């Protein structure tokens, strides 16, 4: 594939992290295992982030699934060293990072961010500090600005267009110290 | 020309080789592990385009912070043993063990034999002698009527038995700034890493212990020692009543003839790399606080008790099969509560002083997070800060883009 393979040490360390989170010692993580990380539990989007690890209807994630989700946050620089155009797109490409963010909004997975879905995410981030009316008008304005085909919902293409100037690579990557 | 070594020289050469190898093998692994946490504050990152309005990219900040916490977080790592940069030949501290050389493995095997077959029985015997002397000695002294002779003998018994127990752990303790040693009528507070913290301190002075009454051998020791010296033991039911606890401690501290009480305000064992939030109760009693910083040297043994992973017996076994317990104790100048300072601020001030002296990091997190969930108020604060950014200008879509308010 088009990405430099993750180093053996990094896998070992992430496996060590996986096992330290796995309090039940059964080789899988549950949502409670993630909730035990205080910095994640206080993150306004904590629940959505945790959900990203679990497939539809599943409530356990194994190490493979854990790594797959984490792979979205590998820096893109890792890919430039081997430009193989024939392989499948790596999980940490700009497009896949954006797709990951899109899925955090799009709960019902219909490939559109509706007004309601946007409101839900907004509500998670502001808590009780903003009224429904104000939040509603923020959502309306945001959709209006991004919506190009007039269906009052944001498709993935419209999402990508809105974020074309944003440095996705830098904001959605975690770097190890070398 | 081939060199042949005699056995001792070979051992020394292997030891030296293992030390040199540590630098190359384990050091690089350790640093690959650390992630480069982006310290850009939320305000700067989200508002970077000078538009105080919601953008789809606002979630990136929270997303990344969430994933950083999943890969490595500040808190949960404190509840397990410290990762060492170089190996101290104890497998328990070598998470990434990989076979390096035959010589190193042989040295390690010899180490295991020495630790388990020689050191352990010796230490166990010493510990048994120490504990028995403590129980018998304090019971005998406890029979005497209250007098200065009794106090003197009680101190002798406590100190002697403490010293036997420290030998039983092969403890080497370096005390610094002895002129600041806690005085009578004061409160000694220290960071907490292990149940043996108390023995480390009583090796050099006499304290009145504070704690809950236990059953078993510990209970026997507690009942015996309290006859000789006014330790403050609480029943389980009493310890839930904060007012009762504070009242009893206040009475003890008010009596300037009584030994300084020893308290560990973190409330739980932390792995000696950081100091977590202090419970304010000890700082409401009044009186002079004598802070003490305790730092263990991880090269010789891991003193941290991971109570969710090991029970006390397996913990003591691990301690007694380490190379040694080496630690530094810094006595620090006494501190009192300033005017206008409440108990929480005072506690934080003492905590900072201890962290600075011991070279530990300070964390704004509660040691109780080892078992309990984090409070919602932290999340609510983040939500509040983000909301402030969204409606800072009072309206959205302001025509004069780029103007800073206030």
From TrEMBL, chain A:
<keyword id="KW-1003">Cell membrane</keyword>
<dbReference type="GO" id="GO:0071073">
    <property type="term" value="P:positive regulation of phospholipid biosynthetic process"/>
</dbReference>
<feature type="domain" description="EF-hand">
    <location>
        <begin position="9"/>
        <end position="44"/>
    </location>
</feature>
<keyword id="KW-0653">Protein transport</keyword>
<keyword id="KW-0539">Nucleus</keyword>
<dbReference type="GO" id="GO:0051453">
    <property type="term" value="P:regulation of intracellular pH"/>
</dbReference>
<dbReference type="GO" id="GO:0005886">
    <property type="term" value="C:plasma membrane"/>
</dbReference>
<dbReference type="GO" id="GO:0015031">
    <property type="term" value="P:protein transport"/>
</dbReference>
<dbReference type="InterPro" id="IPR002048">
    <property type="entry name" value="EF_hand_dom"/>
</dbReference>
<keyword id="KW-0449">Lipoprotein</keyword>
<dbReference type="GO" id="GO:0005634">
    <property type="term" value="C:nucleus"/>
</dbReference>
<keyword id="KW-0519">Myristate</keyword>
<feature type="domain" description="EF-hand">
    <location>
        <begin position="134"/>
        <end position="169"/>
    </location>
</feature>
<keyword id="KW-0677">Repeat</keyword>
<dbReference type="GO" id="GO:0045121">
    <property type="term" value="C:membrane raft"/>
</dbReference>
<dbReference type="InterPro" id="IPR051875">
    <property type="entry name" value="Calcineurin_B_homologous"/>
</dbReference>
<keyword id="KW-0479">Metal-binding</keyword>
<dbReference type="GO" id="GO:0070885">
    <property type="term" value="P:negative regulation of calcineurin-NFAT signaling cascade"/>
</dbReference>
<keyword id="KW-0106">Calcium</keyword>
<dbReference type="GO" id="GO:0005737">
    <property type="term" value="C:cytoplasm"/>
</dbReference>
<dbReference type="GO" id="GO:1990351">
    <property type="term" value="C:transporter complex"/>
</dbReference>
<keyword id="KW-0813">Transport</keyword>
From TrEMBL, chain B:
<keyword id="KW-0012">Acyltransferase</keyword>
<keyword id="KW-0594">Phospholipid biosynthesis</keyword>
<comment type="pathway">
    <text>Glycerolipid metabolism; triacylglycerol biosynthesis.</text>
</comment>
<keyword id="KW-0444">Lipid biosynthesis</keyword>
<comment type="similarity">
    <text>Belongs to the 1-acyl-sn-glycerol-3-phosphate acyltransferase family.</text>
</comment>
<keyword id="KW-0808">Transferase</keyword>
<keyword id="KW-0443">Lipid metabolism</keyword>
<dbReference type="GO" id="GO:0005789">
    <property type="term" value="C:endoplasmic reticulum membrane"/>
</dbReference>
<keyword id="KW-0812">Transmembrane</keyword>
<keyword id="KW-1133">Transmembrane helix</keyword>
<dbReference type="GO" id="GO:0004366">
    <property type="term" value="F:glycerol-3-phosphate O-acyltransferase activity"/>
</dbReference>
<keyword id="KW-0256">Endoplasmic reticulum</keyword>
<keyword id="KW-1208">Phospholipid metabolism</keyword>
<dbReference type="GO" id="GO:0019432">
    <property type="term" value="P:triglyceride biosynthetic process"/>
</dbReference>
<dbReference type="GO" id="GO:0008654">
    <property type="term" value="P:phospholipid biosynthetic process"/>
</dbReference>
<protein>
    <submittedName>
        <fullName>Glycerol-3-phosphate acyltransferase 3</fullName>
    </submittedName>
</protein>
<dbReference type="InterPro" id="IPR045252">
    <property type="entry name" value="LPCAT1-like"/>
</dbReference>
<dbReference type="InterPro" id="IPR002123">
    <property type="entry name" value="Plipid/glycerol_acylTrfase"/>
</dbReference>
<dbReference type="Pfam" id="PF01553">
    <property type="entry name" value="Acyltransferase"/>
</dbReference>
<comment type="pathway">
    <text>Phospholipid metabolism; CDP-diacylglycerol biosynthesis; CDP-diacylglycerol from sn-glycerol 3-phosphate: step 1/3.</text>
</comment>
<feature type="transmembrane region" description="Helical">
    <location>
        <begin position="97"/>
        <end position="118"/>
    </location>
</feature>
<keyword id="KW-0472">Membrane</keyword>
């Amino acid at each position: 594939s088009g990405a430099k393979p993750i180093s053996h040490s990094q896998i070992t360390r992430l496996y060590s992290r996986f096992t330290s989170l796995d309090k039940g010692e059964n080789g899988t993580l549950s949502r409670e295992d993630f909730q035990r990380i205080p910095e994640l539990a206080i993150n306004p989007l904590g629940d959505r982030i945790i959900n990203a690890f679990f497939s539809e209807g599943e409530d356990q994630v194994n190490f493979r699934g854990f790594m797959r989700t984490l792979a979205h946050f590998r820096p893109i620089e890792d890919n430039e060293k081997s430009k193989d155009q024939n392989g499948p797109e790596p999980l940490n490409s700009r497009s896949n990072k954006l797709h990951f963010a899109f899925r955090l909004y799009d709960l019902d997975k219909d490939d559109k961010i509706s007004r309601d879905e946007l409101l839900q995410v907004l509500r998670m981030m502001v808590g009780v500090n903003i009224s429904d009316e104000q939040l509603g008008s923020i959502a309306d304005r945001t959709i209006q600005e991004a919506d190009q085909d007039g269906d009052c919902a944001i498709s993935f293409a419209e999402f990508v267009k809105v974020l074309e100037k944003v440095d996705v690579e830098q904001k959605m990557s975690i770097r190890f110290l070398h | 020309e081939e060199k042949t070594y005699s056995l001792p020289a070979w051992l020394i050469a292997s030891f030296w080789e293992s030390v040199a190898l540590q630098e190359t093998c384990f050091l690089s692994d350790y640093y690959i592990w650390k992630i480069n946490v982006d310290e850009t504050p939320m305000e700067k990152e989200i508002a970077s385009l000078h538009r105080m309005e919601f953008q789809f990219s606002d979630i990136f900040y929270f997303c990344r912070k969430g994933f950083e916490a999943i890969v490595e977080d500040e808190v949960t790592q404190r509840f397990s043993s410290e990762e060492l940069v170089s190996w101290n030949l104890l497998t328990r501290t070598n998470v990434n063990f990989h076979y390096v050389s035959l010589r190193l493995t042989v040295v390690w095997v010899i180490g295991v034999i020495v630790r388990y077959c020689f050191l352990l029985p010796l230490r166990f015997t010493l510990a048994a002698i120490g504990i028995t002397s403590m129980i018998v000695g304090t019971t005998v002294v406890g029979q005497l009527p209250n007098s200065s002779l009794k106090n003197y003998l009680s101190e002798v018994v406590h100190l002697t038995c403490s010293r036997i127990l420290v030998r039983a752990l092969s403890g080497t303790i370096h005390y610094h700034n002895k002129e600041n040693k806690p005085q009578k009528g004061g409160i000694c507070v220290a960071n907490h890493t292990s149940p043996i913290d108390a023995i480390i301190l009583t090796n050099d002075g006499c304290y009145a212990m504070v704690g809950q009454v236990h059953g078993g051998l510990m209970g026997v020791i507690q009942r015996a020692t309290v006859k000789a010296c006014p330790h403050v033991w609480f029943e389980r039911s009493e310890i839930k009543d904060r007012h009762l606890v504070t009242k009893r401690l206040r009475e003890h501290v008010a009596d300037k003839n009584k030994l300084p009480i020893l308290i560990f305000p973190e409330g739980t064992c932390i792995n000696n790399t950081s100091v977590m939030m202090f419970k304010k109760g000890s700082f409401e009693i009044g009186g002079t606080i004598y802070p003490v910083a305790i730092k263990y040297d991880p090269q010789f043994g891991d003193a941290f008790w991971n109570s969710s992973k090991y029970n006390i017996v397996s913990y003591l076994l691990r301690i007694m099969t380490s190379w040694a317990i080496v630690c530094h104790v810094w006595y620090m100048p006494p501190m009192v509560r300033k005017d206008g300072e409440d108990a929480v601020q005072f506690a934080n001030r003492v905590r900072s002083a201890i962290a600075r002296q011991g070279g530990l990091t300070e964390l704004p997190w509660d040691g109780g997070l080892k078992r309990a969930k984090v409070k919602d108020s932290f999340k609510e604060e983040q939500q509040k800060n983000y909301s402030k950014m969204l409606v800072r200008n009072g309206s959205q879509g302001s025509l004069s883009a780029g103007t800073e308010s206030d």
